[in-house]
Amino acid sequence: MKEKKLKNVFVHGEITPQKIAESIQSHSSKTDIGAHSIFLGQVRKDIIDGKEVEAIEYSCYEEMASEVFNDIREEAFKEYALTCLHIYHSLGIVEAGKICLFVFTSSRHRAIAIEACSSIVEQIKVRVPIWGKEIFEDSTYVWKQSNI
Predict the structure, then answer these.
(1) How does pLDDT run across 86-134, given as a tens digit for each residue?
(2) Which residues are CB-neighbours of 34 under 8 A, at least 6 positions away?
(3) Residue 101 to residue 76: CA distance in whole angstroms
(4) Which residues, 6+ apart, have CB-to-CB distance to 78 below 8 Å?
(5) Exposed / middle / buried, residue 140 (Cβ in 10 Å: 0-12, 13-18, 19+)
(6) What pTM, to 2 d.p., does this model score?
(7) If one looks up domain 10-143 in CATH, what number appears?
């Protein structure tokens, strides 16, 4: 049995506006699509114990996280009538104000694209083993606590 190649979802550093624009542009020739839904996760400049978060450093065990991302993709295609689905997540350091998660769903109708996108984002937050280290302006850090 041939082993299925996992789609690479990881981007080192921020997910650039150019990458997002190119992804959107690449769908303009797909005329069976009637709707897209996009979620962009951005690093916040939170204040924790009086210190500002300057960046988050994301890390994971890539092989395990890739398998979970793949499972989420497969489940989404089974549950929703999607035409396309793209997921990108940052690894490494992402500065406050920059994009760290990009989920892009496409379907014939808007309700499906919107519902699928929202569900996928929630599944990522709950299931994917990615850790974030919040880095402060004084170079100290704390491990990010998920607040789903």
Answers:
(1) 999 999 999 999 999 999 999 999 999 999 999 999 999 999 999 999 9
(2) 107, 108, 109, 110
(3) 17
(4) none
(5) exposed
(6) 0.92
(7) 3.90.1170.40
